Amino acid sequence: MVNRWLAEYKGLAKYKWNFLYCITGPFVLGIEQIKIPRVDQYRPHFVVYSLYGLPTGTTIKECLSYPVLMSEMHSKKGLQYSLDYEEDISEVKESLDEFLTFSLGANVSFDSMLLWLDRIVNDPLKKSRIHLPEVWEVRYNLALYISDDRANQILAEINDSVEKIDREKCLKHYGGFSHWYKELTSRNRTEHLKLIRENRNSKELRSLLQFEIE
What pairing do the DSSP bridges indicate for beta strands 27-35 and 41-50? Predict the structure, then answer.
């Protein structure tokens, strides 16, 4: 199973027996094969972990404690894939490649990642399983990695988006908009890049290939 995925995505490396990752800019990206209980099958998921920290902390262990975004993989009929361990993955790979707007395990452009984030927000199968503030956080931290100007552009987009939704309902689990926004913008770019660099170079990630966002 693992070798099949590694043969298709040569930029990925095995982190654990069923977790295949690469480092891309401020993220760890990859595919996790999650075993289905009581049957000899698994479900592949595309995952994004931050290297800039989570509310629980900023160490690499805390960064990898849970993904900032996770997406199930669906067939053209909208069904989630459940695969035997020896099953061919060509159809799943085709679905994932169509879903992503960038190449997994390669240098990618900033705009292509933003396009992907827009896609998951607007995809009927994906948006019901994500929280909009979490996507905003990923967009902002990605932009801050590139430049202060890009980060400010994303903040303007967030403020514009908030005016069009029920902000209290959307952000009630995040302490309200003001609290969430203050936390989001509390780190400057110098601190942001320093933390990402430290986590990228941690011994836990030495087996992973590193790529950039341009």
Answer: antiparallel
